[in-house]
Amino acid sequence: MAGRVTIQAVLNELPQGTLSIPTVTIAPTISNLVQVLNVVLAEGDNLVAVPSWSVGVLIQPAAGNAVAMTLKGISGDTGTPLALTAPSLVSFPASPPADIDLYSATLAVTDTTVTFF
Predict the structure, then answer these.
(1) What total number of domains does the chain contain?
(2) DSSP labels for the chain?
(3) For an engineered disulfide with 38, which of 6, 22, 102, 111 has Cβ 3.0 to 4.6 Å away?
(4) Would residue 8 count as lying in a domain?
(5) CATH number of the domain encompassing residue 107
(6) pTM for the whole thing?
(7) 48 in a structural domain
(8) With the C-alpha atoms ordered 101, 102, 105, 108, is the resulting torsion angle positive or negative?
(9) What is the pLDDT along the chain (117 residues), one digit of tens a residue?
(10) The pLDDT of residue 1
């Protein structure tokens, strides 16, 4: 069986009760390819090359991370702030970008795990 990313969630204890989010699957274009990088981010822009076969990326800061990170697109844009310690998942179009830009507010002292699938 080919590897795939499956996301499923149930939100509990909401004022309106429980909300089940339908299962979402991201299937790779090429079976069983994965690349895991452990990156210590420098202050400023950190370009990470995206494999040509990648359909997405999971960005996982270290549990004790305290450095603000932003996922940026083209140079100069404001980007999207990422959670300090929670994972961020991004799926790519059929032709993935050449790289992703992880902007770090200061020099990080812990690894950020970047997993392409």
Answers:
(1) 1
(2) ----EEEEEEEEEETTEEEEEEEEEE--SSTT--EEEEE-PPSEEEEEEPPTT--EEEEEE-TT--S-EEEE-STT---EEE-SSS-EEEE--SS--SEEEEEESS--SS-EEEEE-
(3) 111
(4) no
(5) 2.60.120.770
(6) 0.86
(7) yes
(8) negative
(9) 456 788 888 999 889 999 998 998 888 777 778 899 999 999 999 999 999 999 999 999 999 999 999 999 876 678 999 999 999 999 999 899 999 999 999 998 899 999 999
(10) 46
103-116 burial by CB neighbour count: b if 16+ within 10 A, else e?
bbeeebeeebebbb
Would residue 1 count as lying in a domain?
no
pLDDT at 7: 87
CA 20/CA 8 separation, integer angstroms: 8
5 located within any domain: no
- Give the integer Cα–Cα distance in Å for 82 and 61: 9
Query: Measured between alpha carbons, how far is 3 from 39 in angstroms, rounded to an integer?
Result: 24
